[in-house]
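Annex B. Sample input.
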Amino acid sequence: MTSAASPYQLYGDLASWWPLISPTHEYAEEAAFVASVLASGASEMHEVLELGSGGGSNAAHLKDRFTMTLVDLSDAMLDVSRALNPECDHVVGDMRSIRLGRTFDAVFVHDAIDYMTTEDDLAQAIETAAVHCRAGGVAVFVPDFTAETFEEGTEDGGSDAPDGAGARFFVWSWDPDPDDACVLSEYVFLLRDSAGAVNVVHETHRVGAFSREVWLRLLTEAGFDAVRLSEQTGDDRTPRDVFVGRLPST
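Annex B, continued. Sample output.
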């Protein structure tokens, strides 16, 4: 979940930097894996709703295979996606409460689900997915980590633009209270504009780290037949837990 009105500048004031902070090509492997999961059902998948679609980086790789409808709370991030994915429908909305009045073959939620920091938030997001899945439809959730897979550590990245602008980030994720279901990610962004001026931004993101049991229970309570998969990745990191819910055909 992202919000231009939230304290997270990354999804508001800094949204225009997203293509340099998190380049679209870096999502190719993840999107290919998600596409294989979406296509693994008994029936063909055509129309996909993505909740928390952000800058549209996953959709850029999925739109050739599926008709994508993209929902995000941040209109600034949707502006980034509109430029990248003009052929997709974009809707401003909260994944916990949005109701589009129609159903899709599948619902996909990538790491925006991490911003569900209470079990109630997570249950509401899962219910939204269930409401928008047709009979026999599938919902795929890809949190960055669960309680079982979370590891304290650091990550860095970023890229440059042809005009000389550039962005770099450093994130340190840690768990100040192992007894709750949240962890903290400390972000530092170094942003250089095309004239060479550099701005430094720090912000703390609070994100959820729910157990596998909680995930599977909430999916089941929402009416899904739920399973956990292990992400297939060539990256040098712990594979993510992927949660897949399928609605009965009748």
